[in-house]
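Hi, here's the filled form for the chain we discussed.

Project: internal
Contact: R.S.
Residues: 418
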Amino acid sequence: MTLNRRTFLGTAAAAASLPAPMVRAMGKPRVVVVGGGAGGATAARYIAKDSKGAIDVTLIEPTRTYYTCFFSNLYLGGFKEIGDIGHTYGGLAAGGVNVVHDWAIDVDRDAKTVSLAGGATLPYDKLILSPGIDFIDGAVEGWDVSAQNRMPHAYKAGSQSELLKAQLAAMPEGGVFAMVAPPNPYRCPPGPYERVSMVAHFLKQNNPTAKIIVADPKPKFSKMALFQEGWANHYEGMVDWIGDDFGGGNVSVDPDAMTVTIDGEETKVDVCNVIPAMKAGRIAELAGVTDGNWAPVNAADMSTKADADIYVLGDASQQGDMPKSGFSANSQAKVCANAVRGALTGSKVFPAKFSNTCWSLIAPNDGVKVGATYEATSEKIAKVDGFISQTGESADVRKATYMESEGWYTGITNDMLS
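And the returned structure, exactly as it came back:
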């Protein structure tokens, strides 16, 4: 499968038929989008663009610069600068989206309003939530967000990414880097293992006698054979992965002492990347659309099971077979945008189709990928077919896969924010 910017931008998905349009008695219908990542930004842009001004679209996003979690591992590895993964919202504003930099702190579903930390209250006809992830309190014994400066998670990109990279650079010669990997389900299934690869690459160049320990509560992980092949080929003897069968799920940390205890064995470490268990971003819970840790949605349009006028995209949603990834969020956003526009203006709504690819870089020009296409069923977003890189592929194939990922990154960030 080859994906470039032209083909990527041409694969806008859509959604199944919905009821007759909701027309306001006075003024334009109003859509409020909370969260300016791959899901929210895409949805806001497509609704504003395709409705040609017929819908009033407001995007609520507290940060003025959006740092993509996808490709943030490449920053850790030295393949990107922090500015390469940072993007602003000027393109959305120029395209007709009202961009408000503030925190959404409450949703009143009866009044159909969103409250902001700055004191404003915004009415909506349709509300789209794309808040990404938050962390589950107590998921890793000894760690909470107050410890993130000592033991960063770096699973919300930006300052945490910069901190983790600075800690890597300051490691003593022959030091120990530890990662506590998350349980399923979580944002970007291959992400922790691409991070291990990028940390290994950085250390091989700058601190070749350093060691990496990974404590993992899972018995297996995404692209496992591909990553383990890559670690053996590029970073022999550097990475020690400890899965659930060997106590990887029995972990505690002491951020003050900088120790990690795995199945009763305490190890002093120099850097510790704790990636806790995850849940939907807080605003989804406040809106009352979660069931447990995630927000169940209808596959045809990403509307929530709890409220037909609220939609949840990307990592926060419980939708079926799609992984929690930037590509997934972008694909779901196009389906949602088409459905919302149809409901509000009576425009044509197309059957929902989704796609996803997750690329990972193991070493320079050694890229691997996994992906699939999906369809909406009455029960969930269901996988139709898929593909994955194979072990033993040629250097030319792996280089082409990496270059494909670069093209995709340019395409998706333009698709979200131009």
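Let me know if anything looks off before we file it.
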